Amino acid sequence: MFTSPCFEAGATYTRAELKERFNITDQTLYTGIFRPAGYDSIWLFVTERKTADMTAYTDWLDGNILYWDGQTSGRNDKSIIEHERIGQELLLFYRANKVEYPGGGFRYEGRFRYSSHTGANPTHFILQRKLT
């Protein structure tokens, strides 16, 4: 089951709201990649301009293309690359900076799909917005 029907494109969501709405107790919600239990969804939380306390990944959304650095450990790279094959959806929650939206919220950008990648630790991904 996918979580995408639960969200409205362009709406903002905080992690606290998501935690309550989906009864999340897993602290990995506060990382950049999260898989809600019982769903076939991978949530990507992306902040374009990082603060000093955040890892300096290079991430930006350019229209329908997301240029995104995976986690330094690379432990989730395979699931991002193979998400469609294994029946999972990628959902993007995006913000320009940590204080762009109240409560540290993110704008829900919709479903994305893997397009390509280069490098490692971190892997540099290109993801494309799914328009249908």
Short overview:
With 132 residues, this protein is mostly beta strands. Helices cover 9% and strands 34% of the residues. Strands 1, 2, 3, 4, 5, 6, 7 and 8 form an eight-stranded mixed beta sheet that branches.
Structural description of this entry:
The protein is mainly beta. The protein has a single domain (4-129), classed as PUA domain-like (Roll). 9% of the residues lie in helices and 34% in strands. The protein contains two helices and eight strands. It has helices at residues 15-21, 77-81; strands at residues 12-13, 33-34, 41-47, 60-62, 65-69, 89-95, 106-118, 124-129. Strands 1, 2, 3, 4, 5, 6, 7 and 8 form an eight-stranded mixed β-sheet that branches.
